[in-house]
Amino acid sequence: MKKIAIGFIVLCAVVSLVLVTSATAADKFPSKRITYKICFNPGGESDITARFQEAALKKALGVDVSITYQVGGGGALCWAELTRTKPDGYTIAGHNLPHTVVQPMEMGSAGYKTLDLKQIYMFESTPDVLFVRKDSPYKTLKDFVEAAKKQPAGVFTCGGSASSSANDLGTSMLNKAAGIKLTYIPFGGTGSAIPALLGGHVTALMSYSTMAVQQKEQFRALAIATEKRMEILPDLPTFREQGYDVVEGAYRGVAAPPGTPDEIVKILADAFDKVMKDPEVKKKMDQNAFKTEFMGPEASLALVKKKMVEYEQIMKELGRIKK
Amino acid sequence: MGFSFDYLFQGFSIALTWQNLFWAAVGCFIGTLVGVLPGIGPVSGIAILLPLTTVLPATSAIIMMASIYYGAMYGGSTTAIVVNIPGEASSVPTAMEGYELAKQGRAGPALAIAAIASFVAGTLSVIALTFFAPTLAKFAVVFGPPEYFALMFMGLSLVISLSGRALLKGIISMALGLTAGLIGQDPLTGAERLTFGSVTLTVGVDFIAIIVGLFAISEVMINVEQRLSSISKMEVKSWMPTWTDIKQCTGATLRASTVGFLLGLLPGCAPSVTSFVAYDVEKRFSKHPELFSHGAMDGLAATEASNNATSTAGFVPLFSFGLPTAPSMAVLLGGLMMYGLQPGPMLFVQNPDFVWAVIASMYIGNVMLLVLNLPLIGLWVRIVRIPFYILGPLIVFCALVGTYSVRFQTFDIWIMLLFGVIGYFMRKLGFPIAPMVLASVLAQMLETSLGQSLLISWGSPWIFFTRPISLVFMVLAFLSIGRGVWAQIKAKAPEVVTDDAEY
Amino acid sequence: MKTQRVADIVVGCGIALFGILIIYASTLITSGTPHKLPPQTFPMVVGILLLLCGSGLALKSWAIRGVDFTIPWPDGEGVRTLFVVIASIACYIVLLNRLGLPIASFLYITFSIWYLKRSKWLLAIVISLITAAISYFLFIRLLALSFPAGPFLE
Known about the structure:
heterotrimer; A: 323 residues; alpha/beta; D-Maltodextrin-Binding Protein, domain 2; 11 helices; globular; C: 154 residues; 5 helices; 0% strand; flat
């Protein structure tokens, strides 16, 4: 009997200790270094944004943040790994649309499901922009579309980053809206599609708004796929202004492993909110034509769900997934 | 964007300030470490230091990052020569020649030649960068998908010369390498291939795991089986290369620098293609091709020279167009963006101080690396004398850490072990290893560029023969294939790896 | 498998069979979009190449008699050593995730050095301790690489 009593006391002590420590752990989140995983190569858009945020993020969270890379399968490797990570909020990963919506749709075994990823914050987007070379005869989108219509379908080629990316989806939206047929040619990334247009190997290039700043010496931007013009690119008209309903781009944010407690997600989201409203960070993002977004967990989830419906429709039309 | 001596001198005056000299030295030192240590490649080496950009002025930071990048190229040859671990596909030929030399007790001269060839190629490339950057930049975009495909196809045709008389075995080795490279998602359509429903296989097999397995692990197995007491039983002779070595390598270094530099200008060309092409060119030029794969100093010099020329050439498209030719270059580009500097033709106009200071620092950095690396050779050569019962397990440790750190996946180290066993049997059964490495690296690029070309041409393969540059590569490739097949039919000998073949 | 000729015939057949497997696997690939270069093409070509070259190798070796070589396979003890080396690396990989890099490396290196040279167990422990310390402080603490640190060191 005595043994049982002692056992009971010990058990109570252990349980309460566990409860107390876990309670303080939640109270004091974060109390140690946070790992911020980037799912693409260093130097890409995701990495550059993370580097812009790094210093402010450390300040906002009060702990060290280490940026690490896990690259493979167009991001799938990293996201699949994230779903198997301990959901304590100490490991978060960059999260990209349309990738995390399209990959599970397209691949039988992407290793994760779109809604497995717990949304924390969606902080930026890079809208699609259609480019031609500076010396091209097409001065406006109208010139380009009319010229494309005069050619047999498919003669005009349009490069972009990877297949089933925002560039690819944007091109097919334009094809549909303008009644033309551009042949989309996927390249290994945003950067590797640039020389194809520089060297004139493709007629046009569907790329991101960042390139409108980076390549402004060599490229002529024809239209941007946003609802209204971007502040940093005031002279660049939208597709809509010119009569084509194309609004598309890549979104970037951060996600946590499935099952991460909501309180922890909120702390992280608040930190990111603070970071994105930091004037220093905002200035750098604007300069490079990243469009800042301020979507907390609910808004991000709503966006993901909206995009899931939208992309499924396009992917079916493209024949990428079975109807 | 033009060149003027005023700018260059101004660049030197900035690069030679104490502060910038210090950061260049730090970069060279870290670069050498990054090259030698497993587990940390140049990409993560530079990336880890990116936060420093918030403290340092732009010029110092970029000088340091650039010197890490080319410094890692110097250091990368060390592990390949001393313990047969090529950290990247581009140092595979280095391992093939350098490790043989190390076994013969000539690790010292091999390391010295590697450092000197790197220095010469690096400096020549900076000179070319200084004077001809604007002209050369145009060359960088001449290559479209058809040209890349033709180049990769020519690269693959090197399998013929890498196989020697064991042609069928060489092609089998190549086909197995291609198979490994095809596993995972198709780059063009996103379809899953050869995964047999496995989630892990969807992301593909990493070629670093294949290379490290085929070289380092299978070497450990062979050495253990033969109860080797140490890699080299020879007395460590002087680490100074002989005059014969230097004379032999001069031509090789100059030729390889040219090949490496020109191919390095292309944003879509892998450095591994460059180093294999330079190695093959040298084999054809060499007075003693039979020595290749048995410790040919000129083969080693050619590979190292082309590696360094390639890394320097990458600055041309980076500065002129903002085009990164390698992942490390992309990180540098990120660094530039942190400072609000936009690479492109305007960079030369708006920030001439910055550009020319970085270019000037490369001359200084190359000298620093040579001064830093030559004395270290005395240290490295002792490694080959370490008893193998100690060195063997440490090689396995380095191989495992190096492989795991590429993607942080346990699966990759299993692949490494599997290819260690495959490599062991390939050596025993006389299958050449180099074709497998080359094919696993090229598989994706080969297929992507073919698919893109066919999209552009509406499915017509004639696109490769109607464009002059790709036509030249295709003709070279078919000549090389035809010659190899003809020799094979004529010989009627059994499939053995003879003296004129690699491994 | 003792001589080159027999080995080549056996391996050639094996490769040919593997080629058939790849050809079969490439027919399983499904893709929605019609494409100029369907994703099945490359694997199919590689499979056919393996089939042709594998059977070619077997036939050629079968046809050529005369010069032959003995393959230097290891003796009984060599095979045992090799087996232990491979098995210990496999254990190392399994332990890596359970115990973390430092401890797994410590165990692996101590065991391997001890196995290859029985008399030097003290040296084995010293060297593996140093390696474990380096792997912990350099890779995990300083560089913050995502290696498994293990249950005691997290």
